[in-house]
Amino acid sequence: MKRGLLLLLAGVSVAGCGGTTSTSTTAAPGTPKAQLIAAADRICSAENTSISTLNQKLRAATAASAPGVLREAAAAERASVGDLRALPVPSGEEATVSRWLAAEGAVATDEMNVATATEAEARQTAEQDIERAAVLAHDLAVGYGFKVCGAQG
User: Fold this and answer.
1) Per the domain annotation, does 59 fall within a domain?
2) Has residue 78 been placed in a domain?
3) What is the residue-level pLDDT of the chain in tens, covering all 153 positions?
């Protein structure tokens, strides 16, 4: 998912599906893996559009309104992860896909932790956690063959 809405006001931005574009394995068209990649990438594309809008809101946010935008972003990320979890996973791919979804879920949890942190140290720790989870999610997505879900912007 596109990583962007982590915390613009703290030098981070709001996250979504993705990571930097890179090479990955490819699945033969029409195979269950290719179908999963296509369906997941559609979900990630929709989330990326939502995250872009939230990033615009975050840029205009005040210190008082930013946590609300971040909570909205975390909710959008959680909803997307829920949609991704509902997709059928090819036999034998469950562990790999589950690990990727766990990393994406961790990003959403960490985004909520940033949004609700009341102390700078807790916020900074949550931001670092997001960064780690986002890198893992990206690497797993790219390694599996996702295009949009593996693209960072």
Assistant:
1) yes
2) yes
3) 655 544 444 444 445 555 433 344 556 666 799 999 999 999 999 999 998 999 899 899 888 888 899 899 889 999 999 999 999 999 999 999 999 999 999 999 998 998 888 898 998 999 999 999 999 999 999 999 999 998 865
Range of the domain at 137: 30-144
Query: Tokens 């609300």 belong to which residue?
Result: 68
Q: Confirm whether 114 is domain-assigned.
A: yes
Residue 10 inside a domain? The answer is no
What pLDDT does residue 12 have?
45
Quote the number of domains for the chain: 1
HEC letters along the chain: CCCCECCHHHCCCECCCCCCCCCCCCCCCCCHHHHHHHHHHHHHHHHHHHHHHHHHHHHHCCCCCHHHHHHHHHHHHHHHHHHHHCCCCCCCCHHHHHHHHHHHHHHHHHHHHHHHCCCHHHHHHHHHHHHHHHHHHHHHHHHHCCCCCCCCC
Say if CB 21 and CB 2 are below 8 A apart: no
